[in-house]
From TrEMBL:
Domain of life: Bacteria
Organism: Ekhidna lutea
Keyword Aminoacyl-tRNA synthetase among UniProt keywords: no
The entry's keywords: Hydrolase, Transit peptide
Domain Acyl-ACP thioesterase N-terminal hotdog, first and last residues per copy: 3-123
GO molecular function: acyl carrier activity; fatty acyl-[ACP] hydrolase activity
UniProt entry tagged with the keyword Hydrolase: yes
Name assigned to this protein: Acyl-CoA thioester hydrolase
Transmembrane region(s): none
Length: 127
């Protein structure tokens, strides 16, 4: 399984009225890293043929992050079933797990706008 990661420094724009990272910011980070991971592995042809849509999110908030914290966001694809894929995103401060997001995505064929079984050529890119 290939793990993709990014580093983020918490800024004032990430904070809510309690002066910790807003829950919606964690979700945006999860969506951003998912897209970045996808784009880092695929070629232009795949990008022209397919896109992903979220089917569901399961989020577990463990700890908080604050202004100036150095955050590491990691993601990997857990598996495939037909047109569906589970992606895990884990957000850390140092070794401490702050948030874990499990998202079920569905692959869409751009031409037909319908669900498409995840082809082997895509699956192997994320193993």
């Amino acid at each position: 399984m290939k793990i993709f990661e990014n580093k983020i420094t918490v800024t004032k724009d990430h904070l809510d009225f309690n002066d910790h990272v807003n829950n919606l910011v964690y979700m945006q980070w999860a969506l951003d890293i998912s897209r970045e991971h996808w784009l880092s592995e695929i070629n232009e042809e795949i990008n022209e043929d397919y896109f992903w849509m979220v089917r569901s999110h399961h989020v577990e908030y463990e700890k908080q992050a604050f202004l100036g914290d150095e955050i590491i966001v990691k993601t990997y694809v857990e598996g495939y079933r037909g047109p569906f894929s589970n992606r895990i995103v884990k957000i850390f401060k140092g070794e401490e797990l702050l948030v874990q997001v499990k998202t079920n995505w569905c692959l869409i064929d751009r031409e037909t706008q319908k669900l498409k079984r995840v082809p082997e050529e895509i699956q192997i890119l994320f193993k």
